[in-house]
Amino acid sequence: MRSRLALLAAAVSVLILTAFLVPLALLVRTVAADRATVRATADAQSLAPVVGTADPDTIRLTVEQLAADSGRPVSVFLPDGTVLGAPVPRTPAVTLAARGQSLTAESDGGREVVIAVQGRSDGTRVIRTVVPRSELTAGVTRAWLVLALLGVLLVLVGLVVADRLARTLVRPITELSRVSHRLANAELDARVAPAGPAELREVAGALNHLAGRIQVLLRDEREQVADLSHRLRTPLTALRLEAESLRDPADAARLTSAVDGLERAVTGLIRQARWRSSAPDGTAGSDAAAVVGERVAFWSVLAEDTGRTVTLDLANGPLPVGVAADELAAAVDALLGNVFAHTPDGTPFTVRLAPDAGQVVLTVADSGPGMPTGAVLRGASQAGSTGLGLDIADRAARTSGGRLELRAGPGCGAVVLLRLGPPRP
């Protein structure tokens, strides 16, 4: 924008200067030619008294002296055809002047000045002089150079002024863009200092107001989520007491483990809502092998109850990834929970975890009916669930710099790939 404004100022300056300097240059040339013509006419008229009264010898001496002083050829044509001074043939202008009319005319050598001297009994005598073209244009080239330099100087000054004015516009716009990008990256404390024209200051104030409003809304939302999550602690405590009161140790341990997992999820939700920035920084890390192994072991009990065969292909750990253990566990639970929620009992599934090109890839594949269109959209579900499972997994992947991929299984079924990036330094 700054360069375009400077280019616009330069174009306008050049057009204005051209409109003024071109006529001025032509005027300078015309004035120089007229000045030279006036001088030659005055010199020729100074001969008129001598030519009208003196004898030919006196006229010849006077003409030669004037020619030497002025540097221009001077001739006097007598009625009998005698030419005194510079020997030149009669020209149409001289013939016309012999009839009593003084005039100037253009010729090959320059501008011809002829003056008719009347009042003698022998006829009209004609004084002729020629202004050479070098004298007609004397000083014009230098004047044009001065005008050209003046025009260039004015254009440069205009560019400097336009650049300063453009900077006062571009700098606030650049600051607005920078703050908007910071806000897009969830730096909600970013603000812009109003500067520039009144319109830009108004936009800056509106952006600051919008940022403050977003910050308030997010804070209220996090508080509500945290309060709601905190309310779940009481029923969780009751569930723990009920689980510990079971007589069968195996059932008690299984239910207690489930309650522990649910409590960890609630605790993580509270911590995320209250203290964690809304922008994931990816600095928290975990061992994907340990987390996936633990969650698959948890879901294997339910798989056994529902007649599902679980195939686990877990690479040797540790496999560090750039996502917190709680978030990764929630993502794994979401993917495995989808298998149980959207496939009939007895449907086998496979869980595979392996490194791949600097990332760790978690693959969950089943032999069920497949993934419906739009399943990855947040809140979209065709099986009566919340529709947030794949979104939770996708956010966990993007937190680490990875992504979530959905594929169709061979023949039938669905394949979900969760690509997890390494921890950031």
TrEMBL record:
Its EC number is 2.7.13.3. Residues 167-219 form the HAMP domain. GO terms for molecular function: ATP binding; phosphorelay sensor kinase activity. Pfam families: HAMP, HATPase_c, HisKA. It is a multi-pass membrane protein. It catalyses: ATP + protein L-histidine = ADP + protein N-phospho-L-histidine. The chain crosses the membrane at residues 143-162. Keywords: ATP-binding, Cell membrane, Kinase, Membrane, Nucleotide-binding, Phosphoprotein, Transferase, Transmembrane, Transmembrane helix, Two-component regulatory system. Residues 227-424 form the Histidine kinase domain. The keyword Iron-sulfur does not apply. One of its GO terms (cellular component) is plasma membrane. It is found in: Cell membrane. It comes from the Bacteria. The keyword Transferase applies. PANTHER family: SENSOR PROTEIN CREC. This is histidine kinase. The lineage of its organism: Bacteria, Bacillati, Actinomycetota, Actinomycetes, Micromonosporales.
